[in-house]
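Regression report. Comparing outputs from two consecutive submissions.

Submission 1:
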Amino acid sequence: MSGVFGWIDFTRDLVLDRPVVTMLTATLAQRGPDGEAVWVSPRAALGYRTLDADGAGGRQPFVTEVDGAPVVAAVTGAPLHLDDLRQRLRSAGRGFAPETPAVELIAAAYAQWGVEFIPWLAGPFAIAIWDARIEELVLARDQLAQQPLYYTHTSTGLIFATERKALLAHPEVDAVLDASGLREAISHALPPGPLFKGLESVKGAEIARFGRTGWTKRTYWKLSSRPHEEDLESTTATVRRMLEDSIRETLPTDTSRLVATLSGGIDSSSVAALAAAELRRRGGDKLRTYTVDFKSSEFEADVMRDTRDSPYAQAVADMIDSVHNLVELESTDILHPIIRQGMLRAKDAPTRIYDMETSQYLFIQHAGAQGGKIVLTGGAGDQLFQGARWSTDQGLVESGTFPWIALAQRFGATNGFGTALLNADTLAALDLRTYYADEYQKAIGEIEYLPGEDEWQRNMRRVSYLVLTRGPLDSSVFAAAGLQTRAPINYYKLVEYAYNIPAAYQHHGGIEKSLLRAAVADLLPEQVLKRRQSATPVSNHPSYAQRLQDEFRAILADPDAPVRPLIDLEASKALAEDAPRLAKDRLARAAAELTLQLNLWLHHYRVRLAL
């Protein structure tokens, strides 16, 4: 996804710190494996790691002179609406060729209009601009916060970066974790934010400007409530049109390095089918699709998955005529120490659902190894089209807390998924019950209800708002493989539209995501259109539980393991000796996995706990 590092200092001469800037930029190499460049001036320095996804990124940082002073820009992700921006620039008397890189257009737009052009973009993007004319830094993110951007203050300035690890590598920054950061890291309420004490994040749809007098920040977009005035048929047609528009703009000109994940679920199948249709319209190459499965896993239906992915994915691939690839993993592949370390480095934090997320991490490495650079996913389908269980289960909808927390509690995880082994002192310090309640009230306090909405409609709007604003997509595992993620469903104009679609439209037909299914009904096999939601595959082979048990025992036998002060040792030892429970009990497995990940994180990142 490319990566940027920056350093602003109004007292030091950063020209002398160029080696440090280069070193800190290098921490982002996994995001940008195709090149590195550094620009340094006395007051500002920018470093960039390049992912050459489609040959159109341009050299970054991009430097142009405006009024006799440098304006330096860096952009990560894949901003959209560039044709519109190019036309606006042309109307302002500044012509640019169709192949002009995004960063050059953005630098020209800034020179022409200042920051006012940023809301015209869509996409996944993060922007950093240093304006030497006024010694001001501009940081901005897309509407849906799809590209990360963190920052922290030094004793005499500011550093910012695409990933936390680049900030933690700075000589003046320590990895200190207080109760607030640990709550975010291990609870399942909110996606992990900056986590470490002193680190902050530019918010989605935020333009943040930093100069000698400090910060000026403003939000340029938010999710708003409005009446939905179309009938079901018209709504279905609008969803289809908006998906096609998003696909058309999302697909690169050069599709030779384009791939798509395909689970056989309605989200990824819709994206793959629409993309394949657009490629045929252009007369281009066939779409390459990828599905993951386990070689030695006896599939077992459970509360999160009803059916195996691969047969459904193959049916879609046959119908859309894609070049299909089945990636088969061994059951214990994801427990290899190198994979554990790689997963941790990808996310800079413990993984909430290790087996599911790490199978995706390892799976996507195969796509990258076979030449993929841009990956289409069905990300955000559950959020936009109310497909997750907490959007269809009345008890969860009316739970009065985050419905995903209510789901975990329903199955016995009182404090959230994976937290069962925390000891009493840790739980007291974290006070997760109060944390969940406070964050929930803060979130629902942002919601605008429409006049005349009954209690059920208000509840459904509440759940929809929560999943759309508190469940952003995490593309870190793709970025760690040197791949750029593009999720055409996660398009802010479609998000705006879908948020206001009545729940009755979303759920018509007696199956979740009925509206999306109807919108693409002509493109997919009947069995896929009728397939109920099924989560990411996991291994049920006994070798997985045995390997997990061995690793867990090793941690508990180490008197210096940094996780020991946080966990209930007696309960942990009892679980470590209960192989059948590790094999069959998803909550127990999640607790063991989180303990292992937390231990590795505390050790590898040299985290100092300040609870």
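Submission 2:
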Amino acid sequence: MNLDSFNLLAVTEAGTPIAALVTFILYSVAVVLLAVASQVVLQKRSFLQEYFLGSRNLGWIAFTLTFAATSASAGSFGGFPAKVYNHGWVLGLWIAGYMAVPLVSLGLLGKRLNRISKETGSITMPEMIGLRFPGHAVRGLATGMIVVLMSIYLVPQFKMAGVILQSLLHDFVFWQTAAGYMQQLTADIPILQADDPGYLLGLFVFSSMVIVYTSLGGFRAVVWTDVLQGIVMLFGVLGLLVLVLSQVGGLTKATQTLAKMQPPNLGMVEFSTDGSIDQPTRVAMDTWFEVGPDRLFRTNAAAYIDPETGRSAPIKTVEIMGEEEKQRIRRDLLSGAAPALPPGLTVELDEFHPYAYGAGKEGVYTTAPGPSARSEVGFLPLSLAFSFFLFWSIGGSGQPSNMIRQMSFDRVRTLKRSMIFLTFYFGAIYFPLVVIFVCGRVLVPGLDQDPDRIMAALSLTAATAADVPWLAGLLIAAPFAAAMSTVDSFMLMISSSLVRDIYQPMVKGDVSDRTVKMLSYGCTFSVGTIVMLVAISPPKFLQDLVVFTSGGLSSSFLVPVFLGVYWTRYNSIGAVCGMLTGFFTFLSMYGIGYLMYGSLRAYEPLSFDPMIVGVLGSGIGSLIGCLSSPPPPRSIVHMFFGAKSPGSPAKGDAAASETV
């Protein structure tokens, strides 16, 4: 380590305004009230149909917004902005295929999944799969994959919500006091120890809230809150776009400034004191300081100096490299009055590492492939951008969470309207997000070690600068809503799979509604609690985990479900082979990547994403397994396809064209 004394007092940005907190609390109260109202409706209807599918009567507005809110997860408002922030304009190519998700997903499977689920009475995807492919193997395999992969998918959602609450509340004394108590309570419990007690407190608050309202209200609570969250997300993004563009001086100026910026160096810092201190001393998160004559740093976590040792634990820190950027930061951030570091501190710098691609270069944030801290070829070579176009459009079709939504709308007219509206909705969300967080790198520099906080940090900065502090609460509610809408939907899917597809088939005879109800509540609560514990030590990049689990689910389910609803010859052996070959082909790409690169990074043959390779593997496995085994029983073919020829619409489709 190099030991230097700092020569410039640190500053932190403006704290969270009270008005922002009030707005955010009002939103949270509205979510809870919707859950209570949905519980009233739940008491009047069939528990299973209502709790897990909302009685299958969603109109086009509710269906559109619940589909959109579930698809726009914490990855969209946490991981995706973090990637835009870290890699620049090239993310426009990376996300372009997402606009086609509604057209491909709903157009490919929507009508048939909805009709079949109603005719067979299926409530979950594994249940429908089990009816189409008789036997325990396929249904059990589908249930296991959904439970495991969706539980992993929930981890970044919980992390994002915890980060948001920490960013919103870390300046308030009551929050700091509560975080201190949380640290004391969990100090002797290894599973509950986190790097930052403020994050742990935020994670606990979010988990309690979402577990309670999802357990209480079921699917209808999820849908009603999704409608609210979908509206908040749209207006939050558009409002932030206006604020950011006005403050950065327009998109042209932001791009010109970005073109002159260089990727930072990343490392760790420890604070220490020579004298004795009576109580723990806190160095605030996002503190700027200088070491030596010309080295500018920003902490990405709060540091707590122990009174006994006089030292803090190492915390993530970013070193700004471009000379013009340093001058701008000093002028904009260090010129005004600001709180200083406690007197008598010194700083120890761990070794700081440059980016693998883009270090010392200007213009890398405005051109492909974009800078990368890990890859020497950059973030997104143009050949890989095409692969991601396929990844989003095809991958969205293979998500069980999207499939279960398609089982809940009321009629074909709803499906058609939703396809059109969702395409425009996604365009109004994702393209503005690219613009916003390209500008965010200019307005809020130095968050490269913890970029998942950029949404909350930029919202607070922009709203405070515009002198509309109450708006910050609404802007921060947008990513919070995205995390919440995905968590509630996925917890409900996992719970329904455990109760409907594991417990009920194992129990002989009828199970009382009360037993099913209690088990459903218990499973929802248990899943949320387990995921919360895992999220205490989450990965750095939310989007990496989102992409991994999305790819695994699509590789496993897309081909078997598609062939299952369109091809009469497709059988149980083909479905098992398709699921297994798809998943393990996908997983092998990550295994090869780990051996090649020494980290959790996928191998991409011919620049194709592992999900594309997994879907191809699933297709090959499905064909081999199906054609090498007998066709399915006639009773199954008749149940799913009617008495007509293979591939034709089932009997009654014409008459049911409006009600599916």
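Expected: both submissions complete independently.
Actual: both completed, but the second showed a warning that disappeared on reload.
Relevant detail on submission 2: Confidence is low (pLDDT under 50) at residues 1-14, 50-55, 643-660.
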